[in-house]
Amino acid sequence: MDIKEADLVFLSKKDMTSVYELEDILDLPDVAYYHFMHYEDEVLYIHKAGKMLGVCSIGDLERFYERNEQELKINQQYIFLKKIDYHMALEFFKRRETINEIPVVTDGNELTGVIRYEKEGKFRSKQRRTLKYVRTSAWHMQEIERFVCKTKARVLLYSYSNKEVMEHLSEEEIQILRKRREKADGGICSDPLGLSNEEWRNFYQLNYETGIVETMISEMDLCRPVVRNGITTFLDMDGKYYHFRDGYRITSNNPVGADRRIIMFGPCIIVGGYNKDESTIAYYLQNCLNEDHYTEWKVLNKGMYNPDLCYGRMFEEELSENDIVIIWCIKKPEIDKMSRNVFFQGDLTEVFLEMPFLTDNLINHPLHCNHIVNQKIAERIYRDFCKERVLEVSRNFSVPEKIQDYYISWDVHEYFMEYFAQYGLCKETNRPMIGAIVMNCNPFTKGHRYLIEQALSRVDKLYLFVVEEDKSYFSFQDRFRMVEQGVLDLVGVHVVPSGKYILSKDTFAQYFEKETVQVIEEMDYDIRIFGEVVARNLGIQYRFVGEEPFDEVTKSYNETMKRILPEYGIAVVEIPRVTCDEKGGAIISATLVRKALEEKNWNIVETLCPESTVAYLKKQYTSG
């Protein structure tokens, strides 16, 4: 270890970002994950009533996710110094090379600060990548468990140990895979995957033909997925090596008339990246079935290239007790909670370990493999079918059902984790009555003010989510400022940008295209995200909306909220629109204000808008 005492610094408690009071933490894993992903600290110091309670390190959090533990425990058995002593700190760091700070705690159990040294930036980046991987892996496994517990189909779970496979490889083979990744990442190879022509010949073997690599790469680029309601699927496609229909990759040897289904879900190894239709696991499994005359069964390939996208597809599939589902898990599942629904659990590690010259059959990772590995895996799965008598269950009268027709991915949940932290939002511990309004305010009128006042009279705290998309007459910055100024005198109102997923073009694009809409599309996804993520994390019990007699898009949106949000324990309260006597009893609307502004009729603007908005608009329209 090259560090010296001169490299050590003392950081006092008042200058630390990693000190947390226990009573302020509602979800320790989320707080720790956000902190470690955004700050350089590797340890959180948890206090109770101002005294040191314990610590939580980045390693503690990784183990929590890896082991799928129920609770992230605060470590109360930690090493510390009783005074600032750089010599003792240095000796400690030499013995614990992975640790870069040690707390200084008084006899009264008070943290005074930490002695630390700065690690190399690449080490911290690696820690973040590892933490993100174990966190997302834990999420995916939770989602697989949720699917298994809800589906009617018989489920077979398969996984392999990447660690065991990599440990089995020689150092030379590991270097081969590493160099391929480095070549591809560095852009120093004509092939974007980092393989030479000779390596591609070894990969495809008898399937090799002139131009196969270039065609595979170009066709994979065309297989870009589309997303609807958070569910990712493939568009229909007819290429030389890739064919997709109805979201499935074609299994060309499906028997004609087969009416029982084996559906495969999972990442790139399932969909068969860089392999022909006739070289996927699904194709070889169908071959085994056909050879043994199980011609009533057809294997359907519903894999997806990205692990972050592949598992959401399971929830929209209409399945019955007559279907078999095979799921490739990114790590070995713990089936205690779902054992009743899991027909079989298999470990495919041996398939990889038994392969001679394994790196010849891989691109740069065990899941990026060739037809030979795919065939071995399919044959292993079929042997399990026979051993477990999977295909011998009699047919039942069962109506296929989907679990849900939307999917909220980990990316959305992670986005909101950062969003809540950015704006200091969290669920109240004393359980007050909390409401929310999502507002465009284009511009902010007396009608908006009336809606807010009516809502505030029914709750203790009111969130105003101002639509952040810049697709309105007024910019988001102007609209947000007008709302802020318009509610300055109201206690309990919190004005927040709506962000990426609260009434945005990604969740309900038609809201911003009202003038051209002829057929109103579903807006369920936007409302599901609000109920399942936003309201649940902030404790929102009411969503307030203004009555909408004219705008069909907004009217339909309100009706959809009334249908969906009660599922999440959220009451939708519709407030009648306020009218203006000076306008002959007409409903106050932002449309009338915009029209008046175009006509430079400030009398009408002053009639329809609060003083704060009028002042803001006059400043904008009369300056210069």
Report on the structure:
There is one protein chain. The protein contains 23 helices and 23 strands. The protein is 39% helix and 17% strand. The strands form 7 sheets. A 5-stranded parallel β-sheet has the order 14-13-15-7-16, covered by helices on one side. A 5-stranded parallel β-sheet has the order 19-18-17-20-21, sandwiched between helices. It is α/β, with parallel strands linked by helices and 624 residues long. The model is unreliable at 186-190 (pLDDT under 50).
Number of strand elements: 23
Cα gyration radius (Å): 29 Å
Q: Helical percent range?
A: 25-40%
* Tally of contiguous helical segments: 23
The span between the termini is: 65 Å
Helix-strand blueprint:
Layout: E1 9-12, E2 19-21, H1 28-38, E3 43-48, E4 51-57, H2 58-66, H3 86-95, E5 101-105, E6 111-116, H4 121-150, E7 154-159, H5 162-168, H6 171-186, H7 197-204, H8 212-222, E8 226-228, E9 231-233, E10 237-238, E11 243-245, E12 248-249, E13 260-265, H9 268-271, H10 281-291, E14 297-301, H11 307-310, H12 313-316, E15 324-328, E16 342-347, H13 349-353, H14 371-388, H15 410-422, E17 434-439, H16 446-456, E18 461-466, H17 476-486, E19 493-497, H18 505-508, H19 524-538, E20 542-546, H20 552-564, E21 571-575, E22 579-580, E23 586-587, H21 590-598, H22 602-608, H23 611-622
Parallel strand pairs: 2-3, 7-15, 7-16, 13-14, 13-15, 17-18, 17-20, 18-19, 20-21
Antiparallel strand pairs: 1-6, 3-4, 5-6, 8-9, 10-11, 11-12, 22-23
Helix pairs in contact: 2-4, 10-14, 17-23, 21-22
